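Regression test case RT-17, inverse folding.

Input:
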């Protein structure tokens, strides 16, 4: 698996404004990486010399406590880049661990080579900073949800986030294990399952193994606005 053309590379925001010579420089340092389920791409504290583009599969970014508990900070989906912010701190280590959830294909890029390109491309540098700013706002919003909203509210919002605009009914397939989603939302797996069952009994969703059916998106959305949770749980 490998990107075959400069046109494909230009679909990625990091490379959209690079000229042909710069794109060839990017491709020169590009590596293809294949991971099996459970394989680590990098671990917390390792030297951050490269950043990545996920082509296939799902990758989780996590930290583990001394007791072995795992907190998932983000799940990377195909088409997303990650670890690119580390190009501005080349002497530091990765702040999280990256592990494949399922079989993955990635492209890897050398951070130093891309930093050299950024010096020649202010437009790309500004796009990267804008993307990092958007992620910062996302993290702030998530901190707000994790500290102020109930576990039920967080799960409902996660489901609603999957629904395309304009759809009032939708089917969601859980492509990653439920315990990973639960960790991403800072919810214990048993609480996650209990909330799904409660929403199912209230006819707000229908649960069929790894598939969630939302027959009335507006009703679920109104519920999330008017109530912080069926179980009124602040703790997870």
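Golden output:
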């Amino acid at each position: 698996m490998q990107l075959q053309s400069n046109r494909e590379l230009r679909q990625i925001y990091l490379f959209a404004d690079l000229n042909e010579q710069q794109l060839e420089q990017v491709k020169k340092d590009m590596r293809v990486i294949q991971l099996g389920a459970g394989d680590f791409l990098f671990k917390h504290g390792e030297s951050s010399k490269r950043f990545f583009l996920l082509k296939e599969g799902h990758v989780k970014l996590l930290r583990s406590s001394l007791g072995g508990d795992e907190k998932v900070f983000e799940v990377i989906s195909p088409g997303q880049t990650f670890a690119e912010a580390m190009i501005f701190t080349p002497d530091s280590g990765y702040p999280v661990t990256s592990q494949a959830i399922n079989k993955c294909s990635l492209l890897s890029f050398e951070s130093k080579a891309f930093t050299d390109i950024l010096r020649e491309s202010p437009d790309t540098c500004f796009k990267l900073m804008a993307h990092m700013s958007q992620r910062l706002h996302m993290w702030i919003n998530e901190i707000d949800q994790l500290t102020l909203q109930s576990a039920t509210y967080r799960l409902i919002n996660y489901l609603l986030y999957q629904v395309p605009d304009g759809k009032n009914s939708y089917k969601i397939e859980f492509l990653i294990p439920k315990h990973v989603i639960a960790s991403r939302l800072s919810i214990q797996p048993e609480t996650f399952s209990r909330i799904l069952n409660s929403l199912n009994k209230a006819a707000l969703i229908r649960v069929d193994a790894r598939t969630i059916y939302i027959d009335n998106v507006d009703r679920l959305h109104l519920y999330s606005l008017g109530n912080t949770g069926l179980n009124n749980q602040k703790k997870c």
